[in-house]
User: Which sequence fits this backbone?
């Protein structure tokens, strides 16, 4: 059926209205009673962050330090625009102090017993579990996730911490006797000072992808959390301190392009981990590599889910809706495209009806399924991409523009949106990063594979089917790094490594798992000869050594 013959779009039962504020509201002014209590508790109990309007601090040499910056960035609650904290554009002098602290700490931390570093990781795990509510609450306030989703953000990072507790085994080297009395051994050594640049969409998980592995392998780290929601990272830094981490091993700086460029350019920094968008990722990769750094960069995505006619319909539809609209679609592994094969075209009305039932609200509110998007600018970009689909002939089967939450009239609200489109449309070609599901129709599995493989991104994909043969064909032929079979968001657990590919990743060594250890270490190979006869021999050999 052509797009022109499809039924006209259904709209969510809200009146279109956009946020009316042009700036932030006074601290606490727009928060609910629950959110206000959480904000006040965070400000009282944690040294480096605030949710009541005070400044976020740098963390340098084991101290939470007030910045002397002349440029500050407001962090606001996305549901109300209430000011939570002000984040500094860390000055060049402060950045230099952070790198110097990391460099000095490396001299002793890199020589610390691997068992001592393991103990730190185990103690950090305990601290994170004990203070999970604070981290999740900070994420709800600053990023806008629902409280259960914020807990999941922390849990997925915590799994990396727990896996890093096996660091003694992960660092085991190799030794072999290559000749009589001659041994060759290889061991893993740390790189030095490393840097991590984290995105806004996972304020806890992404810092925890890097902190435990970088530090457990003997490196020191300079972390730059997102300037939009740094609170979780600041709490984690304080928990590292509580877990016994020495001064200077972890440092936290803040800011935007100037701080990022300083990380890329500083000669003492040996490696950079980055997660974020395409533009920033390419810039960091190229600038970091130009100064000889090891760089890993997770970037954009357009993740497709294929629905086959033999799929378990109930499971498939629920999975697609959860993966498309959870976290307001602000996940690099969100399902943003559903490819409906054959008779599954008829499932669109039921997909729309189920999506309509999702509740959009502030993250502490009971029953909220998804919260606001991160900023008014993000909302504007998302709604403009929805509008572009109309202009190009697409059908908006469910329109989330104009979604209102009466208790939070200034929130960055976008409701679940379903668009029937083609692969030539802008809404398909660009990463939307919002609660928008693009639906593409395909006649056969081969057609679906062709659509996915022609897309420039290769982060994740999924297929829903009850046929092992179909699943096998899809898994073998799809050109995407992370594949789910009846699993909508196939993010590998940390005993494996991240494996997004194509335009979704730049670098040679991906995040966490065995490859995470590889990224943060370098090999040193030593060949040693200890011959008993050397103690009594009196004639040197000048022949080429062959080790035979």
Assistant:
């Amino acid at each position: 059926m052509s797009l022109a013959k499809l039924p006209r779009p259904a709209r969510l039962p809200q009146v279109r209205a956009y946020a009316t504020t042009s700036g932030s509201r006074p601290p606490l002014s727009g928060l609910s009673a629950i959110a206000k209590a959480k904000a006040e508790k965070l400000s009282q109990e944690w040294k480096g962050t605030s949710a009541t309007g005070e400044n976020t601090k740098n963390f340098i040499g084991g101290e939470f330090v007030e910045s002397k910056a002349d440029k500050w960035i407001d962090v606001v609650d996305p549901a109300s625009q209430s000011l939570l904290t002000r984040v500094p554009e860390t000055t060049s002098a402060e950045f230099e102090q952070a790198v110097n602290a990391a460099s000095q700490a490396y001299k002793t931390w890199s020589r610390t017993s691997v068992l001592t570093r393991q103990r730190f990781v185990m103690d950090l795990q305990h601290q994170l579990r004990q203070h999970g509510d604070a981290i999740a609450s900070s994420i709800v306030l600053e990023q806008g996730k629902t409280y259960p989703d914020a807990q999941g953000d922390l849990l997925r990072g915590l799994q990396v911490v727990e896996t890093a507790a096996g660091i003694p085994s992960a660092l085991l080297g190799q030794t072999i006797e290559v000749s009589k009395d001659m041994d060759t051994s290889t061991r893993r050594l740390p790189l030095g000072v490393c840097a991590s640049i984290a995105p806004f969409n996972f304020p806890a998980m992404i810092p925890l992808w890097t902190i435990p592995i970088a530090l457990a392998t003997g490196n020191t780290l300079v972390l730059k959390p997102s300037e939009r929601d740094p609170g979780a990272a600041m709490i984690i830094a304080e928990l590292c301190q509580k877990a016994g981490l020495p001064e200077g091993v972890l440092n936290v700086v803040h800011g935007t392009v100037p701080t990022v460029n300083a990380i890329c350019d500083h000669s003492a920094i040996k490696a950079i981990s980055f997660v974020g968008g395409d533009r920033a990722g390419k810039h960091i990769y190229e600038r970091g590599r130009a100064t000889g750094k090891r760089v890993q960069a997770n970037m954009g995505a357009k993740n497709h889910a294929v629905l086959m006619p033999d799929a378990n319909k109930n499971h498939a539809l629920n999975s697609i809706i959860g993966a498309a609209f959870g976290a307001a679609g602000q996940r690099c592994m969100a399902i943003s495209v559903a490819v409906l094969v054959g008779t599954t075209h008829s499932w669109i009305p039921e997909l729309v009806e189920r999506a309509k039932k999702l509740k959009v609200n502030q993250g502490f509110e009971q029953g909220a399924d998804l919260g606001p998007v991160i900023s008014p600018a993000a909302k504007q970009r998302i709604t403009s991409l929805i509008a572009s689909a109309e202009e190009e002939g697409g059908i908006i089967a469910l329109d989330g523009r104009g979604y209102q939450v009466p208790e939070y009239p200034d929130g960055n609200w976008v409701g679940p949106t379903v668009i029937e489109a083609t692969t030539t449309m802008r809404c398909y070609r660009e990463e939307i990063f919002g609660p928008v599901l693009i639906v593409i129709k395909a006649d056969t599995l081969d057609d679906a594979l062709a659509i996915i493989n022609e897309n420039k991104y290769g982060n994740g994909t999924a297929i829903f089917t009850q046929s092992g043969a179909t699943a096998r064909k899809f898994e073998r032929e799809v050109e995407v790094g992370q594949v789910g079979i009846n699993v909508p968001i196939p993010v590998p657990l940390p005993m494996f490594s991240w494996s997004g590919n194509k335009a979704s990743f730049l670098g040679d060594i991906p995040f966490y798992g065995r490859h995470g250890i590889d990224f943060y270490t370098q090999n040193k190979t030593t060949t040693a000869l200890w011959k008993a006869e050397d103690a009594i021999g009196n004639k040197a050999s000048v022949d080429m050594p062959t080790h035979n």
About this structure: Confidence is low (pLDDT under 50) at residues 1-9, 11-22. Residues 92-109 form the longest helix (18 residues). The chain has 17 helices and 23 strands.
